Amino acid sequence: MGMEQTWRWYGPSDPVTLSDIRQAGATGIVTSLHEKPIGDIWSVEEIEERKKMIEWDLSKNPPKRRGLRWSVIESVPVHEDIKLGKPTRDKYIENYKQTLINIGVVGIPTVCYNFMPVVDWTRTNLELELEDGAKALSFNMEDFAAFDVYILRRKNAEKDYSDDILEKAKQRFEAMSDEQRYVLQKNIISGLPGAQEGYSLEQFQTKLDEYATIDDAKYRENLSYFLKEVVPVAEAAGVRLAIHPDDPPKPLFGLPRVVSTEDDLAYILNIHNSVYNGFTMCTGSFGVRPENDLIGMIERYGDRLNFAHLRSTQRYSNGSFHEAGHLRGDVDMYGVIVAILKEQRRRHSAHRHDEQIPMRADHGHTILDDLKKKTNPGYSAIGLLRGMAELRGLELGIERSKVIFRKK
Ligand code: DNO
Q1: Phi, psi of 5, rounded to the nearest 5 degrees
Q2: Which residues are CB-contacts of 296 (< 8 A; sequence separation ≥ 6)?
Q3: Does the active-site annotation cover 379?
Q4: The pTM is what?
Q5: Has 309 been annotated as catalytic?
Q6: Which tens digit of pLDDT belongs to each residue from 361-390?
Q7: Could you tell me the strand order of the sheet in which 312-315 lies?
Q8: What is the best residue among 82, 113, 114 to mutate for testing ligand 1's pocket, by most ligand atoms within 8 Å of CB?
Q9: CA gyration radius, the chain
Q10: Per annotation, catalytic residue among 161, 199, 219, 379
Q11: Per the structure, how many domains does the chain have?
Q12: Given pLDDT bands bounded at 50, 70 and 90, which one contains residue 408?
C-alpha cells in the first residue's frame, strides 16, 4: 500500500479549489480553521461544517461525494502564552484540550502543530528565479542578517553572524531600494501562508523582548509542560499529534529552538511515550541541517511518524538555501520513501490501524500559468502537482521493484 496522498488547502479563499485537488489525484485534505483566532476553542459544529465542505459538493443536487476526506489538521496553532510559559497558559491549554476532544468527536485522525516562537516558517525571498524560469522560495542568510541588523536593528544582533556574513549583509542592505527593504521585511515578519500572525517592526521587537529570558532549556520545559497536559487528552480522543520541525532548523533572532535535530526529536517523543505524541517528518525543514540523517530518523522513530511533508532544499555553505525540485537538491527522496514504506509494512504486521501514513508534496515551484496568477507562495497548483506526480511515480517504482521487502 502506498502512502496517503494529501494536499494542503487554505480553505474557501484558496485559489486552488477542492475540485482542482481531486483532479491532481490527492484523496486527503490537509487544512485548518485558519480564520479562528489562536487560542480559541474550535466547536464540533465548526469542524463538522468544514468537513462537510471538504467531503461533499453541495452545489450539486443531490449533493455529490467529492472523493476527498479531511485527513490532517495543519495546524491547531499553539498560543504564545503556552510557548512563553505565562501563568495564563493553563487557560489556553484547557482550550487546546477541548479543541482536540472536539476534533476527535468529528473524527479527524491527525493534528500537525509547531512550537516555533513568534514566527512560523521563515523565508527571505518568495520569488527566487531559477535557471529554468520557475520561481522558488529561498532563505538567504545575508539578506536575513541585513534585516536583523539594519532594518530591525536588534540589540547585539551582530554577535549571531560571522564577519563575512555581516560584511555582505551590509553591502546588500546598502544596495537595496526602500521597496526592496520593505518586501524583505514583509517576507520575514508579516506571515507566510498558514502562519496566522503578522507583525509591524515595533510589535515584532516587543514579541522578541518577551523571550529575552527564555533559553532552549526553559523552552523545552514549556513544551514538555504542554505535552504532558495535552497528550493524554489526544490519546483519549483518538487524535494523533505530529509536531512539525523548526523551519529553518536553527535559531533566528536569538530565539530558542527545540525541534531542529534528532536529539530534539528524541527528547520530545520521550516526554510522553505514546503514538499519539508523534512527529511530522518534514524533509525540507530537517534536511537543511546536513547532519540530520533523515532516513535514520525515520528508521529510528518511524513508529511515531504521523505525517510526512516531502520536499527538498539546496543548501549553501553559509546557511542559505533554496527550495529545490522534489526529486532534486540535497534530500535523498528515494531513501526517504523506502524508509516510510518499510515503516508502513511494519505497522501492517503489527496490525496497527494507522498503517497508511499521510504525506503531502510540500512547497512547489511557481511554474507555467501560475506565474501570471496570484498564488499562495509555495502552494500554487501546478508546481505542487508536478511535485506530487514525481513523488507518486517514485513511490510506485519502489513498490513495484519490491525493495521494501528486501532484508538489509
Ligand atoms: C509551511 C508549513 C508550516 C507548517 C506549520 C505547522 O509550509 O510547513 O507552515 O504548516 O509550521 O504548524
Answers
A1: -85, 115
A2: 262
A3: yes
A4: 0.97
A5: yes
A6: 999 999 999 999 999 999 999 999 999 999
A7: 125-129, 135-139, 321-324, 312-315
A8: 114
A9: 21
A10: 379
A11: 1
A12: low
